[in-house]
Structure formats: C-alpha cells, structure tokens
Design a protein that fits this description.
The structure is a homotrimer. Chain A is α/β, with parallel strands linked by helices. Helices cover about 45% and strands about 15% of the residues of chain A.
Chain lengths: ~300, ~300, ~300
C-alpha cells in the first residue's frame, strides 16, 4: 500500500511533468507487454456482436438479411485483419466459414427459447423469453463466440463473452461445449469454464460454477495451460442455485439432479440425485439470547 | 454440438445466399412464434423507465413535474398501444391509474432510503444512498413495474425489472409484493420470485434467493403456471448473504434472522434465529501436506 | 403494500394536478433531505472515471498524456468544487495530490496484470487480461477511488466503485486497503467492505464476501460508524468461490488457503488450509423415488 501523500513543494507544472514522465516511461512492465502484443478495440467487437445477435434473434426479412449479413461479414474481416498474431487462414475464409454457421446457431437458439419456456413456470410466452430472459442473450453471444473460437480466432471470442458477462452476470468461456436446449434461469453469478462439456437439455440456476479443481503444473512449477480442467455434464441434468462442480475428470451422469449449494468434485452415475444434507440449524425462539448464540448469530 | 466446419467449394455469394435462405426460411420455430406473439422494443421501455425513476427520485419542481409527467403519460400510452395482446382496459385508463400511484411510490422510496441509511453503518448520509446504492435503484424500478403488473399490463413490467437485473444484478419479479422500508445491501445475485410476499422493514444481503421449491405439474406432466411458489417473509426479518429460502408454503415469521448460506424450505416461527452449524473445518498448519489433504484442498 | 387502484371519477387533468402537488410537496422526507445534502451528477463522475482508467491502462504517448492529464485535472477540480460539504483542502491541492498518485497506481496495475496472468491457466497473454478480465477494470477503478478516499474526498469515490459494481458485479468499497498483485477471477458477486485490509499477492474467486460480523451500537442502540468491521487478509492468501469471511478482528494468516463456501468469523494462523467438510450427500440412483426423497430433491 502506498504511503500517505505529503505536502508537495513543487509547482503544478512540475507535478504534471513528473507524472507524464513516469506514465510514459519506456518501462517493460505487463501493460507495456500487453500493448506490444496488441489487441483490438473492445468497443468495435461489442458493436459487431450486438448486431449479429440482433440478426439471429429478430431478422427474417430476406432483403434486410442480405444487407445485414454482407455488412457483418465485411465488419468481421476488418476485425480479424486488425488482430495481432496469426490467424489459421485468411480473414475472408474465416468469415465465410462463420457465415455458414449462422443457420445452425439460429436453429439452436430457437430450441433454447423453447427450453426456457418449458423450464420456467413464470414465463408467459415465447416473446417474454426474447425480451426479458438474460440466459437467451448470454447464450446467443456464447454460441457465436464459440464458433469463432473453434475457427481458432484469438481474443475476439473472449471479448464477446466478457461483454455478455458484464451485461448479464453470466460468464461462459467460449471454449466450453454446450449442447441443444440449454437454459440458465436468473443466471447472475454463473461461471462455465473453458473446457466444460455440457450435453443436451441441461438446465442451470443462478450462481452455479462449473470450474477447475486444481491447476496442473509442470516440473518448474508453472501452470500447464490447455488441459481439460472443467467437468462434463451429460444430457438432461439440472443443477440448482449455488452448486459448484469442479474438475476435468468429473462427469455428472445423464438425468441427474444436483441440489442447491452442493460442492462436488467426483463423478456421479446417471439418473442420480445429489443434495447436501440439510445443515444442522440452530433455531432459537424469543427475544432472549445467550452469549454464545450472540457470537454466532449476529453477522 | 455442431460438427467442425469444413473447406467449402462454394463461392462467397453462394454461401451468403444459402445463409439468407436458411435464416429467412418460413419455419415455425420458437423464434418465429415469438415474433408472431409480438413484443415491444426493450430500448423504448428502458428509456421510459429511467425517466420515471429520475422523476421519482429527484424531481420536486412543480413546473418541471407538469411537463415531465405529461410526457411520461403520453409515452406510456404509446408503449401500451404498441403491446400485442389485450389490455384489461384502455391505454389512457391504465396511464391515469398509473399516474395516481406515483405519489405513493415516492413516499415508499423515501422510506426505503431511510431504511438503507439505518441498515448500513458505512452510509455517510442520505445523498450517498441516492448516488451509490444499487438497492434503491433496483427497488425503484421494481415498485414502478409492480404497479403496472397489478394493472395487468403484459411484458412491460418484466422488461423493466430485467433492465434493473442487468444494471445491478438484482432480479426482482414484478409480481412480488414488497412492503415498506425495504433494503438490500450490496445486492448482486439476489433473486426474488414472482409470488413472493415480503412484509415491512425487511433487509436482505447479496446472493439471497427467495425461490420455488418444486413446480406443480398437471395430469399431463405440464407445469402449472400461476400458483404461489415462493415464500412469505414477515415484517422485520433479516436474511444474510447467500441464504436460499424456497417454497410457496414457507413462512418466515416476523422478527426472525436467517443466517448466511442457510438453505431453508420449511416455515419458521416469529422471532426465531436460524443459522447453519459452522461446518466442520479441516485446518492444517504448515507447508507439508498428506495426499488426502491434497485431494481436497486444491480447487 | 398499497391497495388496489379503483375507478377514478376525476378528469385526467385533475389526476395530473394531484400527482404534481403530491410529488412536489414541501415534505421533509429522506429524498428531500438527500437533495438538501446535495450530490454530484453520477454521469459526470463516471465519464471522468472511465477516462482516468483509459489513461492508466493504455496511454504512454507523452504528448497525449500532457493533454489528457491536464484535462483530467481540470475536470477533477470542477467535480470537487461542485461537491457539497467541506473538502479538507482546496480542490486544486487535492487534484495535484491525486496527479502524484497516478504513476504509483499505474505501476500497481501492471503488477495486477501479471498476477492475473499467473493466476489463471485460461489466460492466453497479457493483452487478453486487458480486454477480457473484469478484475483488472474493477481494481483500476478501486485503486483510483481509494486514493481520492485517502484524500478525504466525499461521495466521488463511492460513485466510482458503484460504477464498477454495476459494470462488473464486483463491489469494493473505496476505504478498503488492497496490496500489490491482486487478482479476482470471474468476480461476479464479490463484496469487499470498507475497513478490509488485504496484503500482497492475494487471489479471490467469484462470490467471495469480506464482510462485517456485527454492527457495534452505542448506548442508545444506534450503529457506531467508522470502526474496523471487516477482516484482514495477509499476504499470499487464496480464497475460493463463495467463501464468506466476517469480522473486524478476523485475520487470515499469510499463505493460507480458504476453500469454497467456507463461512468463517475467526482468525486463522499463517500457512493454514481451511475447507468445509464435504457435505453429507444423499445419492439415489435410478428412476424410482420414495416420498421423502421427493420432498427434498425437487427444488
């Protein structure tokens, strides 16, 4: 922690000059290295993302689609060409591959809408899913980012899913594989790691973490990057609020139900229900309190 | 999960044509059905919501109020007339009823500000509550949305509360009934279901869920919609961070205190304190580790 | 809860007049008191904050720095002069002191970027930390707000950190003291109270609360404001998702690891690992269910 600022005998101009010199300095810190690596402007990526999302969820008019898709492909080429580091093939080829994935994504999103309606008794219709369910919007952005991730595009997919994370509190790494008919109810606090595999018809509630159990390290103690660190969730699994499932070898068998607040790092066979034992609760009626109770209750 | 994209012999124009045809296709999926149901532009609803919030929290000048309220009522009529599906009475009648509710909402918000100041020792004054407490803003939007929900306006109330959810991480369904002097500290991750009933002087912390225990289904296995599925919280109850209270028959008696991380789906009598038994903790001092510990500690 | 709206015999003009009169009324409620205390426009503070953040994270060009810093200092003087209540010294002096802190903040942020890269095996480089890690942005805003808090500037620091809270779901009070190489992974739901002290090389996961155990009250039952109510976290501590650590006397000794979902309000010696005992889980395989299981499993 820095020390208390002290009265400064220097003139304001001196102080400004010193700040400029320090901030501009030709240092070699991580911020300088990040600048040297290079990165795109997140604002441009986010604008493109929201326009793709709008086309996928709303646009069915062929004339509007022709104009919108052509613009989006051109914009994607520009975004790709501005990326530092190598692309696996030309920006045009990637954009064309990406264009091919859109009909499939749209079909998946239509099924995601159905899964949301079927999964929430509070939903009044399909229209409400479109205008008032954060899951659909976060999953739309994830599904688009995931296709770019599969095309080995760097940085853009992560900027896209962090845009969804900031907007909806749902953090899905673009590397995760997620099957058909996926629904997250409420969603704030959900974290899905980059090597997670999720089957079909899976439903999550708010605060669910699908995370890493431990980080493998090499002989020099450095973390090994790229291994499967996150769990596999088979078809038709439901995971309730606040549950945490960890580890690359952990498999939740199909049809299983994981109760709220469960903390799990072992595989579970199919059609299994897991819940925490209801915690021993200390219940005390009336106004009087003993000292020990006082200690524990008052948070 | 879709298959790997493959090299495509088609020209870019062919790929574009195919994408347009697939996206525009006259299918009958859930996205097409949502479009057929019709829905308002969320952007317009959000702009109106933020303007109502500004009037309620800040505007006391009679001349400005006359102009602002007239504009807001006209805007509401436009929003209502653009809604698909039937309104229970004319847009003008609903707008007039809504206008009548504003003084009552304003009086409630003033008390919510007091409750926030009294509930948080970090608050330095009432002004800080207005500019730096998400609870006040989420609750303002909820209280306005709730009045429109009571007037049986479809979709708009949910768009409004999802705006608050996206902005503050606090998800309050407009159907919930919430009494005077309500305060949520920090708030991220809070979920309050649509049939929840909350009395006066209730205080929640971040991550509290007031949710459904199970979904009733009819003879055909379809969820029954509209039943009371969420709990009742009586007056002067405090619920600490991460607690989850579930079920339409669950009643938390007045004056009770629910500790952090409690998972509760049974009623609790008045003036009761409930907490989880502190979990058995495994504490190991020093650098050395046995294998079994290794298994558990490293997440 | 207000009563059902009833048919109203009044003309729309009458209803509008009545609403204006009620909203404008010369009452003495908490909203009127907040207006009397006075407060700055959050929009202006947020715009300034985002510009400071941009300079700290991205700007190294001396000419651009000269122009940007001069503008930021002028803007800060304007923001400070518009504040109600007394400043501890002139707006110009505070701005000059603030300018002096920027090189130190920038050096800290570069180390925070390194800590993020080292702390997350999913990170592909330093650039990704800048464009896709909410922790860096929330911590940048916190570090700037903390310097203004130390300079005893009212309201502005809290508006700044609430901006970060709304944007990233990470709620750090500007009064907290946080050392070098700080990293929060994912981050949604994190709460760090205003009297928390955090050492160097500390790593938190999503949903961690560093909060107050109880509120001290004076002889009249009023909360005492300003005491140390939040924990001390020593160097090189890691705290996993959903853990809650409470109390001003609670010290987590250096090098300790706190497991997920731990609920802790007692001090822990250095180099200690704490975890909850894995909860007794009820696992039931197959399709058939007994009634009692039904009761518990279906949430």
């Amino acid at each position: 922690m820095s020390s208390e600022p002290k009265p400064d005998p220097r003139t304001p101009q001196d102080v400004l000059d010193a700040a400029i010199e320090a901030l501009a300095g030709d240092g070699d810190d991580a911020l300088a290295k990040a600048a040297a690596e290079g990165f795109p402007d997140p604002g441009g990526v986010i604008a493109w993302t929201d326009r793709v999302r709008n086309v996928l969820l709303h646009q069915r008019d062929p004339f509007a689609l022709r104009s919108e898709l052509a613009t989006l492909v051109d914009h994607l080429v520009t975004l790709l060409e501005a990326l530092p580091g190598g692309l696996p093939c030309s920006a045009e080829e990637i954009s064309r591959c990406f264009l091919q994935t859109l009909p499939g994504i749209r079909a998946q999103l239509a099924e995601d809408v159905e899964a949301a309606y079927e999964g929430d008794p509070a939903a009044t219709g399909y229209a409400e899913i479109l205008v008032a369910y954060p899951s659909l919007h976060a999953v739309t952005i994830y599904r688009v980012a995931h296709e770019l991730h599969r095309l080995k595009v760097p940085l853009l997919p992560r900027i896209m899913t962090e845009h969804a994370h900031a907007a909806y509190g749902i953090d899905i790494h673009p590397g995760a594989k997620i099957g058909r008919r996926f629904f997250i109810d409420h969603g704030t606090g959900v974290v899905i790691g980059g090597t997670t595999e999720i089957g079909e018809c899976v439903k999550l509630y708010q605060g669910v973490t699908l995370g890493a159990l431990s980080f493998a390290r090499d002989a020099d103690g450095r973390m090994i990057r790229g291994e499967k660190r996150h769990p596999t969730i088979e078809d038709e699994v439901t995971i309730y609020a606040g549950a945490t499932i960890l580890g690359g070898d952990t498999v939740i068998g199909r049809g299983s139900i994981i109760g709220g607040n469960v903390w799990l790092h072992e595989s579970i066979p199919p059609h299994t229900r897991v819940q925490i034992k209801p915690p021993a609760q200390r219940v005390q009626t009336g106004e009087e309190e003993d000292d020990e109770a006082q200690l524990h209750w008052d948070i």
